[in-house]
Amino acid sequence: MQKLFCIILFSLMFLGNLIAQKHDYVWPFGYSGDFPGLDWEATFLDFKTSPPTSIPSSHSMWIGGTQTSVCNNQGELLAFTNGIYIADKNGDLMENGDSLNLGYYFEEFNNIGYPGLNDAFFIPSSKDTNVYFLYHVAKELDPLPGKLLRTTLDFSYNQGLGKVVEKNKIISSGFFEFIGGTKHGNGRDWWIVTRDESFYSKKFFKWLITPDTIIGPLIQEIGTGTRNNGIGGIKSIFSKDGNTFIRPDRFEGIQVFDFDRCTGELSNPRLYKEPGLDTVRSINGEISPNGRFLYFNSNVTIYQLDLWADTLNNNALKTVAQYDGFIYEGKSTSFFMAQLGPDDKIYLSCTTIAPFLHVINNPNQLGLDCNVEQHSIRLAGYHAFSMPYFPNYRLSKDENSPCDTLSSTKDLSIFQGESIRVYPNPAQSSLHIDFGNLDFHNLKFSIFEITGKEIKKEQFDNGLEVKSIQLDGITKGIYFYRIQTEKGEVVKSGKLIIE
């Protein structure tokens, strides 16, 4: 009974932690609060209220391209960035938070914000609640783009205001930008995905972010390829459930894929490419919470594409809004970039400096029932062009997938599995499993590649003796193992290094 109580309590704590993951609840907008003049006031959009509240700020950050932020589990702001530096919750420079993305574009844009769009987002550490990682792309002048970087923040410093403890760590170099993120099927680790922007390339780059290492880039060739240096699309888009990935391009078409959160594999490529698509400005867009509709826009029109249609053509396309011509202080409020909010509404920025956001109130609804409300959010100050990017922090383990090979959440091992020894690790030609005094029957031992593919399995009648596994034919590298009962209960799991 005591064990059952502990399991229930652990499950409730884990579920509560998922529900409370409000890391995207405060969005930064605007320009320096010190800038003189009417409407030149920085803004935070706070989603702890409904509708979200626009809160003026006097911080000195100028946001002109890159913009993202991170909150704690309760939705309280921790930090935000414009790609040039990181500010703490008070808007002050975080200790060691200066000089992000060094290079030509840093030097040219250090006063107005890094020019990258959809090139930065935060991921919380699964090992330390005080630690958050900023993944960001630094552009190169020639060739363009450049590097995927990681910067690490630790909020145990400076009475909770934080400190940057690692900065601009190079993860990969290549011809890519516009990174998208979603959780692995185990509900703990993360995938980062983007497209190779080289001419005629069909490659997609994928990185698996685990608590102890970054694996990748894993490269997959799929889809139609590129011919225009990626200038026709400015976002890599994941659906809320992580099962759909979209890379839009006004020249090459809108590429739609299924995404396997376990293996990271893209599949089932579909393409929307109709005459007139190339007249749409650089496409970003956003997917409805139910995964059915892609919304994308020109400056004056918002479109809804039905992803569940048999064929992605104009029969699956609807116009859901035309710019109403509203002008504020001589400034247009036409449409630009989109982001799904934590309230399941889609928000769009303007193409010029105007203190407004547009809202798609019911994005799961077909056609005009989606209810586009233009310039309905009044920000405290001017903002233009950009929109923060956030992955779905509340996405949990994929219960319908057998791929939970990396999970730190074990069923039986909370109380029993720690008695099991799997050794040596690193291993070479063989591996041994010592079950101690534990009496299990019909156990399955599996080894998985980092993508989740099972490459070796052994069946044991009982667990009362030391078992040996031969590793012949398995190449050197990082793998994962799992021991489970015939009912699928996980007894023990972990990382395995083969040398």
Major beta sheet, strand line-up: 7-8-9-10
The coarse silhouette is globular
What low-confidence regions span 5 or more consecutive residues with pLDDT below 50?
1-18, 405-417
Radius of gyration over all CA atoms, rounded: 24 Å
Tell me how many strands there are: 35
The percentage of residues in β strands lies in 35-45%
Classify the helix fraction into a percent range: under 10%
- Largest sheet at a glance? 4 strands, antiparallel
Report how far the terminal alpha carbons are from each other: 43 Å
User: How confident overall, as mean pLDDT?
Assistant: 87
- State the oligomer: single chain
**Class derived from helix and strand content:** mainly beta
Count of separate DSSP helical elements: 2
